[in-house]
Design brief:
Order of helices and strands: HHHH
Shape: globular
Radius of gyration: 14 Å
Number of helices: 4
Strand content: under 5%
Length: 80
């Protein structure tokens, strides 16, 4: 589980208002919604082709989007 915890911590660091990445800090659920759609579509394409090599990459991209949305919700104290 340390890898997923590392990812969660990395996203939290990127969104840290004091030391994070300016682009990541300014994102909202709405501003990255299209990114989630795009990454899901790319994942579905790899599934259709049974392209396991690229499926792994696309699963990672979708996971990053999920963690970003979860981090934003935690920051707003909606859930963790």
């Amino acid at each position: 589980m340390s890898s997923i915890n590392d990812l969660i911590q990395t996203v939290a660091n990127l969104r840290n208002p004091d030391t994070g990445c300016p682009w990541d800090i300014e994102q909202t659920h709405q501003s990255i919604a299209d990114c989630l759609i795009d990454e899901c579509c790319e994942l579905l394409q790899t599934i259709d082709r049974m392209d396991m090599e690229h499926m792994q990459e696309e699963l990672g991209d979708v996971l990053l989007q999920v963690v970003m949305h979860a981090q934003m919700a935690e920051e707003a104290r909606h859930f963790n």
